[in-house]
Sequence to fold (127 residues):
Amino acid sequence: MRRRDLASAFTYLVNNQANGLVVVSDPLAFDRRARIVALAADYALPTIYPVPELSRAGGLVSYGSSLAEAFRQHGVFAGQILKGATPAELPVQQSTKVDLVLNLRTAKTLGLEAPMSILMRVDDVIE
Fold:
C-alpha cells in the first residue's frame, strides 16, 4: 500500500459519513501506524487501535495488549530455544493483560467528551 492510498481511504471514509474507524492488528497497519494516527487526526475521525502504544502516540482510544510485553515474551521464547528447547514443546502463550487507554487530548481535539462509564474502566488516561 502506498502512502497516498491511506489518504484516499480516509477521504473515502469521511465522504461517506463514517462515524469512526477500527484499526485491526496486522503488519501493514503496524508499519503505517504513525501515518494512520496522523490521518485520523487530520480528518477528525475517531479511531480505536489494537495496541496501547498508539493511543499514547496520539490515537483516541486503544484496547489490546502492549507491544512491549509481546516483544518481551518473544525474547523469552528465543532465549529458551537458544538454550536448547524444542519450539514444538514450548507452551502456547496468550497475553493475559489487556489495556484500555484513552487519550483525552485527542478526544478534546475531536470535540468528544468521554462518558464517566468509560473513564471508570480505562487502565490509562492520557491528559
